[in-house]
Amino acid sequence: PLQEALGRLSAAPVLAAESVPGFRASILDGYAISTPEPPASGTRWQLVGRSAPGAPYGAELGAGEAIRILTGAPLPTGAQRVLPQEQVQCPTASTLELVEAVSDQPWIRAADEEASAGQQLLAAGTRLGAAELARLASCGISQLAVTVRPRLGLLITGDELIPPGERRPPGAIWESNGTLLESLLIRLGYPVAQRRVVADDPAALRLALQELAAGSDVVVSTGGVSAGDSDWIRPLLAELGEVAFWKLFLKPGRPFAFGSLQGPSGQAIPFFGLPGNPVAAAITALQLLWPALQQLEGAKPQLLPRFQLPLAQDLRRRAGRPELARARLHVDGSGVPMAWLEGSQASSRIGSLQEADLLLELPAEATQLAAGTLVWAQLLRLPIF
Predict the structure, then answer these.
(1) Under 8 Å between Cβ of 250 and 278
(2) Residue 61 to residue 54: CA distance in whole angstroms
(3) How far apart are CA 315 and CA 197, in angstroms?
(4) CATH class of segment(s) 25-109
(5) I want to staple 74 with a disulfide (CB 3.0 to 4.6 A). Which of 45, 56, 194, 295 is the partner?
(6) Where are the domains of the chain?
(7) Alpha-carbon distance 189 to 283, whole Å?
(8) Which candidate, 132, 385, 183, places its Cα nearest to that of 286?
(9) Residue in 195, 196, 199, 119 with CA at minimum distance from that of residue 161
(10) CA pair distance 14, 5, nearest whole angstrom
């Protein structure tokens, strides 16, 4: 059903069964006449009826005849043009007179303006947004085939985590990565099927990974992928499957593990070990997890839109790793869009995501960037349609 297809991927081409709207219609409120050429000012017609949306005029329109017609209403057989109501007057209840010159525009919507019978409305592999679904509905289509989305298993790790709403003891933090990633993935079209929050205990983590691998097509974790005493995810991944690579040359996002877990039938289940810091987890999910999920679904990966714009202020940073800095989209008094960095860029500060419209791509070697310097940016606020 269309109501359940938002964000999904079409599995097959969709064709229009018939032309839409299926009849010639008036573009504006006015009067339909049978004259194909623009008539001269002072011309008169006999008013013989009315056509409204859902209540068309049923007879053929003859020479010297006119009908009142409303926007979107069907034109009767014989009608060749619509006169805007602002350019005519009715000297009597049954007489229409043109009082000013009209243009060549007939003000008629074609019967196949939206679609022709047999026309392809969607190709296979189209991401279904509001515009796509509305067009299908306008063409009388109520359901379509979509691809199967990968089932996601999400593992949140950490001894310090407690559920939001609970009283917080010293040293504890309220768990937010689950909410962050589930919300982000739903927004991207991939709801989480299973979620576990587990302390940094190797036995408990092993069991959670095995359970998630048994019921998921992709397993994602946050935390436990660095080199600390309580970081168990990478060694457990090596034990239960394979570590393909570890660590990224990226800020934020260095602690990252990718590989696979062995599924119940021996199949390889892709595994993404995201950093524990929430900003780093969100950014690596956007840069690496999201494209992979799209490929698994059968889609051509859609990335965040990239463009260049100038910095609004001088910027100093340490050399080292390429950085994806969070920034606002600022429009100056001349209407020029610029990138404005505001507040701490700490990967633990979720507020930097809340405040951000952009991710700025800052090169590893860049330590000083003057205001006005062009930088590449990725748009975080996705297009509506």
Answers:
(1) no
(2) 18
(3) 38
(4) mainly beta
(5) 56
(6) 2-18+122-138, 25-109, 152-297, 306-379
(7) 17
(8) 183
(9) 199
(10) 14
Radius of gyration of the chain (CA): 30
Q: Which two tokens stand for residue 331?
A: 């429009």
Q: Which residues contact 216 (CB under 8 A, 6 or more apart)?
A: 150, 151, 152, 153, 193, 194, 269
Sign of the C-alpha dihedral, residues 51, 57, 63, 64? negative
Distance CA 172, CA 170 (A): 6
| CATH number among 3.50.50.60, 1.10.530.10, 3.40.980.10, 3.10.520.10, domain 152-297 | 3.40.980.10
CA 120 to chain centre: 22
Rounded to 10 deg, the angle between the 233-240 and 202-215 helix axes is 50
Residue 204 sits at the vertex; the CA angle it makes with 198 and 210, to the nearest 5 degrees, is 100
Q: Helices (H) and strands (E) in the chain — how many of each?
A: 7, 25
- Which residues lie closer than 8 Å to 355 by C-beta, 6 or more apart? 326, 328, 342, 343
Tokens for 292, please give them.
Answer: 């992979």
d(C-alpha 235, C-alpha 248), whole Å: 17
User: Alpha helix (H) ranges present in the chain?
Assistant: 130-138, 177-188, 202-215, 233-240, 278-284, 290-297, 351-354
Task: Please report which helix (H) or strand (E) contains residue 138, including its range.
Answer: helix 130-138
Which of 37, 129, 16, 131 shows the shortest CA–CA distance to 80? 37
Structure tokens, 364: 């590893």
Tokens of 53: 């949306």
User: What tokens appear for 378 in the block?
Assistant: 């990725």
Q: What is the pLDDT along the chain (385 residues), one digit of tens a residue?
A: 999 999 999 999 999 999 999 999 999 999 999 999 999 999 999 999 999 999 999 999 999 999 999 999 999 999 999 999 999 999 999 999 999 999 999 999 999 999 999 999 999 999 999 999 999 999 999 999 999 999 999 999 999 999 999 999 999 999 999 999 999 999 999 999 999 999 999 999 999 999 999 999 999 999 999 988 889 999 999 999 999 999 999 999 999 999 999 999 999 999 999 999 999 999 999 999 999 999 999 999 999 999 999 999 999 999 899 999 999 999 989 999 999 998 899 999 999 999 999 999 999 999 999 999 999 999 998 777 7
Contacts of 238 (CB under 8 A, 6+ apart): 259
CATH topology of domain 306-379: Beta-clip (2.40.340)
